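Bug report (template v2)

What were you trying to do?
Predict the complex of my protein with glutathione.

What happened?
Run completed; filing so the output is reviewed.

Input:
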Amino acid sequence: MKLHTCTGAPSPRRVTLYLELKGIALDQVEVDLRAGEHMNPAFSALSPNQTVPVLELEDGTCIWESSAIRRYLENLNPEPPLFGSDPIERATVDCWSDWVFMRGLIPVMEAFRNHFPGFRDHALPGPRPVAQIPALAERGQTLFSYFLEDLEQRLQAADWLAGDQLSVADIDALVTIEFAERGIKAGPAAAQAAIAAWRDRFQRRLNGAA
Ligand SMILES: N[C@@H](CCC(=O)N[C@@H](CS)C(=O)NCC(=O)O)C(=O)O
């Protein structure tokens, strides 16, 4: 099996961070998004959305959504669990990862893609033309600042988003923050100390996983 990916892009990072924490090694194929490689017919045959990441299995099956790739790998490699280990934990992880996606990742993506000239008529990935809407870029910045406030509050109450254990929800929150820092020049304030402490904890886990 091999992972089609692009270093530095947020959706692939949701998978590669997961791989790091699980200790899973996969063959990786770098797709040059800047050069438009993902729009080539060969890549389009792997992903109807023309997006990375894609996990290509030995039998030719392609899994072309980062969440679905992680779920698939989790079923093959249950330890250590990053989706929770019983029905309540799993539901809690799902709640928090959906929350990060809707309240954090989508707003940052909107702020980024509706602003940069390089995404003119490509405000959403995929083969269809999608016009930029500058008001969505502005709204994305505001929503991201709300996300940080709510994340700070959550991390004052719990070590990890879904409770006692690091999960895919934490991966997605970290990816969201890194994406915002690079892409829209926004990030946590110095006063958001619980977020800073959580990032330190996360880094220690990554160092331990290496
Ligand atoms: N929902 C998809 C989103 C994938 C996605 O948007 N990937 C971006 C890179 S972060 C991409 O391939 N963009 C290509 C483009 O903008 O044309 C997932 O999570 O896998």
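What did the reviewer find?
The chain has a mean pLDDT of 97. Residues 2-76 form a domain with the Glutaredoxin fold (CATH 3.40.30.10).
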